[in-house]
Design goal:
The chain contains 5 helices and 6 strands, in the order βααβββββααα. Strand 2 and strand 3 form a beta hairpin. Helix 3 packs across helix 5. The two termini are 16 Å apart. Strands 1, 2, 3, 4, 5 and 6 form a 6-stranded mixed sheet that branches. Helix content is 41%, strand content 23%. It has 158 residues and is of the alpha/beta class. It has a single domain, classed as Mannitol-specific EII, Chain A, CATH 3.40.930.10.
C-alpha cells in the first residue's frame, strides 16, 4: 500500500479556490476537475452517481472535510479530485461547513482499494496539524507534498 496516494494525486486535479459556497455547485466544480481524466469513462454518468450517493447520506467526515464518492462502472481505476474553499461550503445534509472536499470515484470491482484509500485519508485528516497544513498550502503542488509526507509518516515502520 506504500505510496498509494501518489498514484491518485495530481496538481491539475486540485483547486485551492472553490468559488461556490453552495453544496451542489461546489461538488460540480470539484467533479469538473475529473472531466477528461483518462480513467473516467463517462463523466456525466460518474457525476450523476456522485450526486446520487450524496443524496443518500452525508459525505461529511467532520473537521471541515467531506469525502463525496461513488463506486461506479464509469471509472476504470480509482480517481480523485480535491477542492479547498477558503470561505467554506455548507453541506445541508451533514449540517456542516466544509473547507476540504476529497472526491473519489472507484470501480465497482475494487472495493478493497477504495477502503484502503478512505482509511488512509481518514488517518491523515485525524491529525489537526495535517488539516491546518492542508488549509494553508499555497499551491496544488505543495498540497500534494503535504498529503504524501503525511502518508509516509503513517506508513513508516514504528
Amino acid at each position: 500500500m506504500a505510496g498509494r496516494l501518489a498514484q491518485l494525486l495530481d496538481p491539475a486535479r486540485i483547486t485551492l479556490h472553490v468559488r461556490s459556497t453552495e453544496h451542489i455547485a461546489a461538488l460540480h466544480e470539484v467533479a469538473g476537475l475529473l472531466a477528461g481524466h483518462p480513467d473516467v469513462i463517462d463523466f456525466e454518468g460518474f457525476y450523476g452517481e456522485i450526486l446520487a450517493r450524496d443524496r443518500l447520506d452525508t459525505t461529511c467526515l467532520g473537521n471541515g472535510i467531506a469525502l463525496p464518492h461513488a463506486r461506479t462502472e464509469h471509472v476504470g481505476k480509482i480517481v480523485m479530485a480535491i477542492g479547498r474553499s477558503d470561505q467554506g461550503v455548507f453541506f445541508e445534509n451533514g449540517n456542516q461547513t466544509v473547507q476540504l472536499i476529497f472526491m473519489l470515484g472507484t470501480p465497482r470491482s475494487d472495493p478493497g482499494g477504495y477502503l484502503q484509500i478512505v482509511g488512509l485519508l481518514c488517518r491523515i485528516f485525524k491529525d489537526p496539524v495535517n488539516r491546518s497544513t492542508l488549509l494553508s498550502a499555497a499551491t496544488p503542488e505543495e498540497f500534494v507534498r503535504v498529503v504524501l509526507a503525511a502518508e509516509a509518516r503513517l506508513l513508516a515502520p514504528a
